[in-house]
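In the laboratory, one determines a bound structure by crystallizing the protein with its ligand and collecting diffraction data. In a computational setting the workflow is compressed into a single prediction: the sequence and the ligand go in, and a structural description comes out. We illustrate the idea with S-adenosylmethionine.
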Amino acid sequence: MGNDLSKLQKNAHSTSSLNSWRSRKSTTASGGSTANVARIPKQKQKPPKKNVPVKNTQSFTEYELRKKKPRNSEWKEEKKSTPLHMPLKAILDGNFKSPVHNRLMAGGMVLDVGTGPALWGMDVAKEYERSHVIGVDINDSFINVGAKIIGRPSNFTFEKVNIFEPMPFPDGYFDLTFSRMMVMSIPRHKWPSVLSELVRVTKPGGFIELVEINFQSFEPGPIHHIISEQTSTAMTKRANLDPDVATTLFHKLSAYSDLLFVNSDHVPLPVGWDGVIGDALVEVVTNFFQSLADLGVMDATGITQAEFPQMVHEATFVEGPLYQTYYNLHWAFAQKSMFCGRIS
Ligand SMILES: C[S@@+](CC[C@H](N)C(=O)[O-])C[C@H]1O[C@@H](n2cnc3c(N)ncnc32)[C@H](O)[C@@H]1O
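The predicted complex, in structure-token form:
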């Protein structure tokens, strides 16, 4: 009953937001006044800045972004495939949270699961020259993009692996087993078997770490609200994905008796505000929403394919800074017991 009521309220909210967006657009198109949202001076509209604890972002300077930004289409490629590496590294204050720095300095084995263009894997390999990083992915076409951007170090290797099958590594092989941004690739029911494989290949005493974005938007504007709600619904219904998997990482790792000291936390990802990270993320979110157009994400709302790109732009570039929209990035890590597999 309560659910039905909130559904009705949500739909009413969505329909009126959509209609008001359409009427603003048609006024603009017919030479009338500009859309309300765009016309209001940002300074006056902007709500008081919330105390959102974006953790130490000092290492992610504009300089660093520019330095790493190639002047050709490679940057576009990076955006399409793994747009988030640099912003995520900055926002998490490093490539990982697990306390494996000393191990990797001394020389260890690292696994990057669903490596994509392997910017994370190659970055870690460069940082820890005595360690070896193996990036696995079912698709080997992204890897050259990453190599061109960051330069492929000799202590990084790629292996074509389907993570829905047993991985070709012995038990207890890796000091750090890492997986990031797999929410769009692992269906809800496959998470347990994938995680069991990650636990299996991690060394006793080694660490397993997961990093995922929660697809629930916070402080969205009205258009952003429609798009993000529909995206989550489409992920769940059409692709059997779990848009909220990020919020379950702690419980997922805690379910393994072999895993100890489970840690987890989250940090906000600002969409189009709060400086250079927000600027990078607004493009990421825009590209992501645009890429969903073909999935018919908006079918249920009656939004047409022609309207969609404009709505996405308004949701991210206009509403994002205005409402100070953000998503949460969740991470969790745990240590594999030294005594796992022993029979007492
Ligand atoms: C969004 S990308 C994540 C890239 C990388 N982890 C990062 O954070 O930058 C998801 C990756 O998972 C890979 N993937 C999807 N299904 C897979 C499977 N069954 N086995 C291995 N990799 C898979 C995709 O090819 C893609 O490169």
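Residues 2-29 form the longest helix (28 residues). Keep in mind that any predicted model is a hypothesis to be tested, not a measurement.
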